[in-house]
Amino acid sequence: MSLRQRLEALDELTRLAERMQAMPKQPGDAPADKVGSGVHEDGQRYPAAGTLHALVLEGCKPTPLASYLKALGILRLVAEQADPDACGYWMDEAFVLQSTLDRAALQAFFLDHYRPTPILAPWNGGSGFYFQERKLSAKDPLTGKRIKTGIRDQPTEATKVVDSVLGSSCERLGCFRSAIQQCKLQVRAFGFLEAPKEREKDRFVEALRSRLADDALVWLDAALLVTSEQTKFPPLLGTGGNDGNLDFTNNFLQRLVSLIDCETGEATPLARQQLPESLFGVAVPGQISAAIGQFAPGGAGSPNGTTGFESKSGFNPWDFVFMLEGAVLFAAAATRRLESRDPVALSYPFTVRTTGSSDGSTALEDEGSARAEVWMPLWSRATTLDELRALLSEGRVTLQRRPARDGLDFIRAVSQLGVQRGISAFQRYGFLMRSGKAFLATPLNRVRVQRNPAANLIDELDTYRWLQRFRSLGRRREAAARLRSLVRRLEDALFDLARFGDPRHVQQVLVALGQVQAYLATSPGARKDCPPVPRLSTAWSLAADDGSANFRIAAALAGLHRPAGDDGGRPDMPMAVHFAPVDPGGKGAWPKDPKLAAMVWRAGSLCRNLFAVAERRLLDAEREGHGGGKPLAHCASVAPAHIAEWLASPAMDAQVDALLRGLVLTRIPWRFPGRTPPAAPLPAAYAALKPLFCTEQQLRRCELLAADARLPLERAWLKRLWLGAPDALRQATRRLHAAGLRLETDHIDLGFTNPQRLLAGLLIPVADDDLKRLLKRLQSSTRDPEPAIA
User: Fold this and answer.
1) 24, 215, 456, 574: least surrounded by Cβ within 10 Å?
2) Which of 138-142, 165-169, 511-515 shows the lowest per-residue confidence on average (mean pLDDT)?
3) Structural contact between residues 581 and 788, judged by C-beta atoms closer than 8 angstroms
């Protein structure tokens, strides 16, 4: 029977049992307490159907990959051969098996009744189906190696173990014997004396697939994919069931014959000794020394793997058996776009291209040699084998109606899929080249599945395919080290944003985007292949708001612009033009004639850069003759308490600078939610000079400036204030008086202030009500000396 037929028959039996249970009892039925629990037949007694046992398999952990696959293999074998209703789930870093088997019955099942899946790979040279070439005792005088005869008739350990199973007589290995016989028939039919290669292998696999029984096809479908063009190999099982010279299938056979006696079918003493450790994590002696391959890097043997200089490979033979029994659940599929002539692509459950980011053990340089990365699902509710198969069969993750390409795409899409399918987390593995040219399934990180609206922000970076183009630019062979570092930094931040989504991680992404924009702005070559960072919505700035003084000041400065003119023109001159040669109205492209003169933000101090921005904005406004006045209009404003904190803390400058570079890429809202911090006093010099740095529209709204009055801000006076000229305050007072603002400034002495920091602070916008209170306080202030400002 095929797998589908067996499942349909199982469903029919379940429905029949439910109908029989609902039937009324006949008179004369024996009481249950006299019959005893369970079902009796010919003197045999089976466990009662309602008795369930939840066994915590401490030997099955989410890491390493061998342990994860082992848990799936145990669930599959129990569900297929012992209890069709068996379920499994993950809890506290262990796998829980829920079935009618208790601890003793589970061990008895594997020791006495388990029937191995025919796991064979006759297309591989080390599979045990091909003899070794005979060599003469004489050596070649040039190479010093024994001379080959060209005759293949020398048995190997692999061929011996295949023949031992083929010659067995026990019933437990019956399916294995049949599969071996069929494979040998096909090898002889093709006349192979050694493993086939390229197109011969494709034809051989096609013929083999049409003749093997269903119980042997589950392995073939997991190990390779037969298409009309060529045979493809899923990454989980290497290149068709082997990793280099290590053939998984023959090692599986070797472990089997060490656990099951081929003649009697009984469990060997080694099997009885090692099974408790494999299932329940009970410490036992006697691990065998053999290769386990890529699935358990810690047990593969390597330098510094233990005390001393080098460790040998060691593991439990049951682990290898259960591991491959679980791997057969991951069947590959061929995909092709509708009405497309492109070659078919390999689709494998939860498998994408490797991304060398978000984990300290990987780098972008690892991507070229890596096979892939696999995201193994972890679930916390009881799941049957059929449900698990359905989950793995649908494990093709999509992002915005396209398949996820790599790890970053996967983590962006994982939340919706996980919530819908009951997945609580994913364990991410990368098949990375380590220890020379060997691949190891390296555990990268654990990703918890939870709804994260902030992850949707990343979609905006896909505008004009910007994110894809920038990541591709950094992966070119000729990419500069600085560019590769920025790609890694941005991807790390995006990974964290998709995982957590709190304001701190949104800020990290904005900081990284600001650094990227600065690099593109100064690299003409990079600008040819990558557009500027797309203009981001206010959702970014709102999600990044943590209420801190650093953020609020950076956001307010990022929102500076020139107000609409008297002719009804639109607000313009955004802050972004001072950081990169961007066109505010550009559609995802750099301007053909970039205005590099406006790009005045450099790597210097925050105060110096803010002074340069103010000078440039005033100069551009004078040249263009804009009727809107000072180009210092704002969106969001800052509470005086935050400004006072910044004036007294130069250590805040680095964070404000980093945030500002990223926030100029976003749209700033008119206000941020949250409570306003308690009022804090600002220096009198700040209050006296602040009207000069406010737009005339704001001053009129505050009823501080008459409709026909003007209060300009001149570049020459700005320069004098920056230099700390003694008469700067006196000149400002005369301008204020001329505009109708009569403030008491005689008691203020700029000598007690840091003029550069004061000027930078004056550019930070304040709300109308705060401006009124500042000036009112100044008008009623005493004539005490001005306090010093750090």
Assistant:
1) 24
2) 138-142
3) no
